[in-house]
């Protein structure tokens, strides 16, 4: 049998074989960007840039094969995500990238596993997603929240900061992260002088109360587990109250990714997982990104001011490597079913 037809059968989608003898390997990007912002634009660009770069590599899969990405933007709506995941499953995508946040990836995985479609995310950190019995088709290229909160506890202890205040947002990410952190904090003799819970869409009055509680507890080290939108309101009020700036140290984890690389909050330190290693692959990716970022077809590129990979661009681009290099190995091993890719 002709190799092209073998690959077409392997994909399970004969329409991937075009009349001119080329192969289109369809992959889906189930993420969102909010109009007028750069929220998740860096992650989406990471996928597009790496796909474009790998399409120049004729040694992968087959010289006539082209990776064709489709982006569906759900604008952060779980209600929109469900039909989009179903559309991609039925449209013949063999791999899905996304969905940006853990709560969205959980939904995507549950839907896509029914169609035996693997997916990968470079920014979903909920430890639950690591349970293969529940999410057998989900992969990620970023450490989970347990690793991040352990690192936070170790960092504080290393600096001799054993009395702190914590703030966490009242949603899955914030509640899960603070719970994990408190388990490690006791192991490193870290005492929480003040623990504050912040509602999503917090207003100035509530944020001011949090700042006053920090002052009352005489805490100088403040650790934040949550997202940037709530943090910005809290910092504004903490600055007015006098507990943000000289004499105080504020630190947050990867939930604050949207604030990078802004310098508006120079008094905040960020503890992010290391994205990349030095070497020729990273150097080539950086060079390709800078030369081609506006020409790779990412609809979100026009809202991003990032001229090189930002906080999570590398993690998401590594998902592309995981998918396509794995698929390449499957093809060259004469695999007979695309569902084997998940194994």
UniProtKB/TrEMBL annotation:
Coiled coil: none annotated. Its main location: membrane. Keywords: Glycoprotein, Membrane, Receptor, Signal, Transmembrane, Transmembrane helix. Residues 51-262 form the Receptor ligand binding region domain. It is found in: Membrane. It is a multi-pass membrane protein. Residues 1-16 form the signal peptide. PANTHER family: LEUCINE-SPECIFIC-BINDING PROTEIN, PERIPLASMIC BINDING PROTEIN OF ABC TRANSPORTER FOR NATURAL AMINO ACIDS. This is Receptor ligand binding region domain-containing protein. It comes from Boothiomyces macroporosus.
């Amino acid at each position: 049998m002709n190799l092209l037809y073998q690959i077409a059968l392997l994909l399970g989608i004969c329409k991937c074989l075009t009349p001119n003898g080329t192969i289109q390997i369809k992959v889906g990007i189930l993420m969102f960007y909010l109009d007028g912002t750069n929220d998740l634009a860096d992650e989406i660009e990471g996928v597009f840039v790496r796909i474009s770069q790998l399409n120049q590599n004729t040694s992968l899969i087959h010289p006539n094969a082209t990776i064709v990405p489709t982006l569906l933007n759900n604008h952060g709506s779980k209600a929109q995500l469900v039909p989009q995941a179903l559309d991609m499953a039925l449209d013949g995508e063999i791999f899905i990238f996304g969905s940006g946040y853990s709560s969205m990836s959980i939904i995507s995985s549950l839907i896509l596993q029914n169609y035996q479609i693997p997916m990968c995310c470079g920014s979903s950190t909920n430890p639950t997603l690591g349970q293969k019995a529940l999410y057998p088709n989900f992969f990620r290229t970023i450490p989970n929240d347990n690793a991040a909160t352990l690192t936070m506890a170790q960092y504080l202890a290393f600096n001799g900061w054993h009395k702190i205040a914590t703030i966490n947002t009242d949603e899955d990410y914030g509640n899960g992260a603070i719970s994990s952190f408190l388990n490690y904090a006791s192991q490193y003799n870290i005492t929480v002088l003040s623990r504050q819970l912040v509602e999503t869409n917090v207003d100035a009055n509530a944020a001011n109360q949090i700042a006053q509680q920090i002052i009352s507890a005489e805490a100088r080290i403040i650790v934040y587990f949550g997202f940037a939108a709530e943090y910005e309101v809290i910092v504004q009020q903490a600055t007015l109250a006098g507990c943000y700036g000289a004499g105080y140290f504020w630190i947050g984890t990867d939930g604050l990714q949207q604030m990078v690389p802004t310098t508006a909050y120079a008094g905040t330190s960020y503890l992010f997982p290391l994205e990349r290693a030095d070497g020729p692959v990273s150097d080539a990716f950086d060079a390709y990104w800078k030369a081609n970022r506006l020409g790779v077809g990412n609809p979100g590129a026009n809202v991003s001011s990032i001229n090189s990979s930002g906080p999570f661009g590398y993690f998401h681009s590594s998902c592309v490597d995981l998918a396509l290099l794995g698929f390449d190995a499957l093809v060259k091993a004469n695999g007979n079913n695309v569902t084997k890719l998940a194994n």
